[in-house]
Amino acid sequence: MLTRMAQEARMASRQLALLSEEQKNTVLEHIADSLAVQRDAVLVANESDVREARAAGMAEHLVDRLTLTEDRLTSIANDLRRVAELPDPVGEIFDEYFPPNGLKVHKVRVPLGVIAVIYESRPNVTLDVAGLALKTGNAVILRGGSETILSNRKLVEIIHLALKEKDLPAGAVQLIDSPDRKYVAELLKMHQWVDMLIPRGGAALHKYCRENSTIPVITGGIGICHLFVDESADLQAAVKIAQNAKVQRPSVCNALDTLLVHKGSAGEFLPAVVDRLAEDGVTFRVDEIAGKILSAFPAELVQPAGPDDFDTEWLSLVLGLKVVDELDEAIEHIAEHGTQHSDGILTRTDEHARCFVSLVDSAAVYVNASTRFTDGSQLGLGAEVAISTQRLHARGPMALKELTTYKWVIWGDNHIRE
Known about the structure:
The protein has 418 residues and is of the alpha/beta class. The chain has 14 helices and 16 strands.
């Protein structure tokens, strides 16, 4: 089954590489329109997935990732339209130069070819990935989690109908809709047909793919995210930023996990942030110094941090609090406990901001802003296929340019090398 699927994806990728920007945009708009027309059918399929997931005991933060609503579908469709509006990177010529030997040299952006994405719980990924892949002329093989099979089947059915109506091959977007894990193992060995693999899930999935894949793997999406509240920070603003970063959607990878607070601000800031976030249902895991400052709060609200708490991606309404002596200690804590995803500083000292940005080695580094902006749509990219936390070949939100590579084009005039 997978060999046929991969071969069809390779053939489709060759056809997609020849499409004009107008053709790509037209099919993306058509998919977005079709989502609106078939909204009720998508929601019915998703409700079945959610019901089965809850019956199986799935954690609520994962159920939240799984759930589609009218608003979320509208947002997904709007993201597809934004991708259609963005410039097509394919065919872009750059780094043009003329060496002394008289050749004319440049690079041109081209599609990667066939991309495989393995992901869990989030059916919006199906449309985000398909939209970005189509815009960049790539074919894609999708393998969602067993908990979202009905949703993904319906979404890919909508995509296939749109492709057919625009005379494009169904092989451009394919779904492995069997929950059997043997297909993941088989997919990882299909380097003859698949050019890049992106796992979107937990650490175990990433490790399995890195250790077993013969295809280049891009990993990311695991976010132990930090904000450091500097002594000079606007503390009133810092409370609002921390609330947004933790509470706005706690089940996603760019939600806040640990607040690091300068000792000079801790006495005023920590009670204020606990008061505010407790109203949203947040509970806290605190180091010894923070615990002393917050000793008047109930024990069920403020608990001592366990040995692994600062190495935990909470994905829920739990927040770590730690007091640090200085900026360097905050940076060292992030280096030791972070996952190079999204980390920020809240400060009014430019020197501290510059130092933090220079020394914190994360895919997205913030100054006076919530970590929740590490998102393709929020950063003006339309959507993303993943948040890469590695250095090659892409880092941070992977959108249109990150789904291309380039080739060298060398023009001569009957040149031969002497």
